[in-house]
Amino acid sequence: MYRLLVQLLDANQTVLDKFSAMPVPIQQWNNNVCFQVTHVFSDIKIGVRFVSFEHWGQDTQFWAGHYGARVTNSSVVVRARLS
């Protein structure tokens, strides 16, 4: 399973907006099929100072060891327009 949480925070780290995703669990033997999760915030409130980006994978088979979703090439892109 893969989970994603992105939060826009003010100077006091109060959440102004957020996006979360929990897509359908990725089957264990899927021949390395990759899935992409994207989101674009619009109408952003004044005062955003931080972006919190958290993502993680969890094994659904409860095996011992380090298993779960592979997370690669993650990024946050910020495009600011000066007024």
From TrEMBL:
Pfam families: FBA. GO terms for cellular component: cytoplasm; SCF ubiquitin ligase complex. Gene3D superfamilies: Galactose-binding domain-like. PANTHER family: F-BOX ONLY PROTEIN 27, F-BOX ONLY PROTEIN 6-LIKE PROTEIN. Residues 1-80 form the FBA domain. It comes from the Eukaryota. GO terms for molecular function: ubiquitin protein ligase activity. InterPro entries: F-box-assoc_dom (IPR007397), F-box_only (IPR039752), Galactose-bd-like_sf (IPR008979). One of its GO terms (biological process) is ERAD pathway. This is F-box only protein 27-like.
